[in-house]
Amino acid sequence: MSGTGWVSEAPCAGDLRFTPDDPSEEVLRAPRTQDLLKVCRVCPYRAECISLVKPRASQFDGICGGRLWFNGEIRATCETAHPRELEEGAKPITHGTESGARAHNRRGETACSLCKEAARIAQANRRAKKKRLSSQHDQRSR
Length: 142
Hints:
The chain has helices at 25-28, 31-40, 46-53, 98-106, 113-141; strands spanning 62-64, 67-70, 73-77. The chain is mainly alpha-helical.
């Protein structure tokens, strides 16, 4: 998915609790807010989220990219977050492609189901091609 089409696919889509209207550090530290970080653990769009919101530059308050931000500074992080996601200009992942699976891997995160499937299919195609070429080579050798 290119551009910002991923936004509607994100686990937090439409949930206003991730960006409270009147954020204070006390509100953001509340247990219910901390529970929202659990949603981010499985989100394949954390880097894209940071790239879109630019939480440091915008002095963001709320949850973005698997992190709890207050005045553009990280106050808490979900367990699966990776430092490479924090680049506010990070190139978005093209989900559902083999290159998307490699991008997840480079960022040190678990690939989303779409990218895992694309990588599996690409690997199966490579194996089939290798087998075909090997059998053709064997036939010519005879």
